[in-house]
Amino acid sequence: MQRSTSLDAWLARLERLHPRTIELGLERVRRVKDALGLAPTFPLILVGGTNGKGSTCAYLEAILGAAGYTTGLYTSPHLLRYNERVRIAGREARDADLVAAFERIDAARGNTSLTYFEFGTLGAMAQFIDAGVDVAILEVGLGGRLDAVNVFDADAAIVTSVDLDHMEYLGDSREKIGFEKAGIFRAGRPAICADPAPPTSLLEHARALGADLRCVERDFFAQRDGDRWTYRGRDRIWMDLPMPAMAGACQLRNAAGALAGLEALHARLQVSETALRQGLAVARVPGRFQRIARAPEVILDVAHNPEAARALAATLRGQPAAGRTLAVVGMLADKDAAGVFAALRGEIDAWWTCTPSSPRAQDAAVLAAALRAHAGAAAVHVQPDVITALAEARSAAREDDRILVFGSFYTVAAVLDHAATQQ
User: Fold this and answer.
1) Pick from 158, 138, 161, 143: which is nearest to 308 by CA?
2) Which CATH architecture does the domain made up of 290-421 adopt?
């Protein structure tokens, strides 16, 4: 086979290589991992959960970076460039390094077929080992127990939240999903749960494993005092911390989960209070209540399931607009649109539905039909694509209104990509 020379060509090939886009299971990816000899000796932190994974990873990366460690960070999905998924010392991976990693995996895998995500996971770890990072942070792609990142043993594992999403793969209840999320825990190692009401399945699995389970509001606490907060854990109390840089009612809990992971690993990763404060103050992830314009204000959020929508509604209430709140929403067809709209009932004054650019997208008209049962007196408009819907919402907005664009990574990415072309 002639090798592809560009990253785009490689990514296009990876999308075609495996017969299924998602195939959970560790046997194939473990076989190739062993063939590659990928055996990291640096600490690994795995971060799973329904929502809050990306933010928690960002806090870990920023704090550890401020403490002087060379970090490796693997996240998904990306918004604009695949390179966003792999970061070393805070910088996105270069095309050439990604291509080299894919070529190495392709040569080692023999007849073993890998998915796009499995190629990416092994490629990220290969780059982290080659770069000699001090610590790696791996975000779980889907579930946990059978997700490709779980082929690596976590020195500390964090589950941010457990709610209903990806039910066709993980099960139709919090108990079933909680068991899948808890699959990243390891015997005798720190297992952090930042969900204040964890499913019994998660607690029982951690207990059966003999994991060192640490639960929010039992083993660690986040107490807000005005614009500062205090973290109280088993062995550490960090006081007078700045509020997280990212807006959102859930961000304090995400930050506390990250700090609980760092507390549990303090013997291997020494982090000063100065580094904690610096990291909390600068950590950001695109698409998490991200403001990109004013007068009218335009806010982007990747919320795409009911739990995320409830958090988004709480943030909207906590940061009321001077005028109205208008919403542009585009979602994928496999998401619980009715649950999302129910969570935002009463928070939106006018709606525009659109169809994101994805084969899995829900048609804007179908989305509008689901929305009308929850929109109340708010008008519902239908547009064919994200940018047209945003343009119409902007035309209808006054300077003191705000426009919320949300519902999918694809929806947010379309706005960010369009904004980049206008600069």
Assistant:
1) 161
2) Alpha-Beta Complex (3.90)
